[in-house]
Amino acid sequence: MTAGHHAWTFLTNHGHVLLAVARAPDARVAEIAAEVGVSTRAALSILRDLEEAGYLTRTRVGRRTHCEIRPHQHFRHPSTAQHEIDGLLALLGR
Q1: If we measure between CA atoms, which residue out of 13, 75, 3, 82 comes closest to residue 46?
Q2: What is the tens place of the pLDDT at every residue in 57-84?
Q3: pLDDT, position 7
Q4: Model confidence pTM above 0.70
């Protein structure tokens, strides 16, 4: 492993995309993908997953898409399902 390259991270790409949207709700998909380190297609797929699961809504505004995170949604994993994503966003999102 080279310096600066990590074999794993604590958050999934879904978590990183959610945080990127929290920081910049009007960011283009390509910008989110670059921040997270995934392809544009992967970022778009993750955004769809998050929208279908109720974590965010996407609205067309002209030629852009505005994302809005839906507060008070719970984590999906059983061990953390009692917690809302708001805590993660407050800690890392801004």
Answers
A1: 13
A2: 999 998 889 999 998 999 999 999 999 9
A3: 80
A4: yes
Instruction: Write the CB contacts of 4 (distance below 8 Å, at least 6 apart in sequence).
Output: none
The token pair at 23 is: 């920081």
Tell me which of 74 and 1 has the higher pLDDT. Answer: 74
| Integer Cα distance of 23 and 69 in angstroms | 11
Are 23 and 38 spatial neighbours (Cβ–Cβ below 8 Å)? no
Place of tokens 């917690």: 83
| Amino acid in the structure at residue 57 | T
| Cα separation, 12 vs 50, whole angstroms | 12
Pick the CATH number of 13-93 from 1.10.10.60, 1.10.10.10, 1.20.120.50, 3.30.1050.10: 1.10.10.10
Q: How far apart are CA 19 and CA 21, in angstroms?
A: 5
The residues with which 59 forms a beta bridge, in sequence order, are 66
94 vs 22, 45, 71, CA distance in Å? Answer: 7, 23, 14
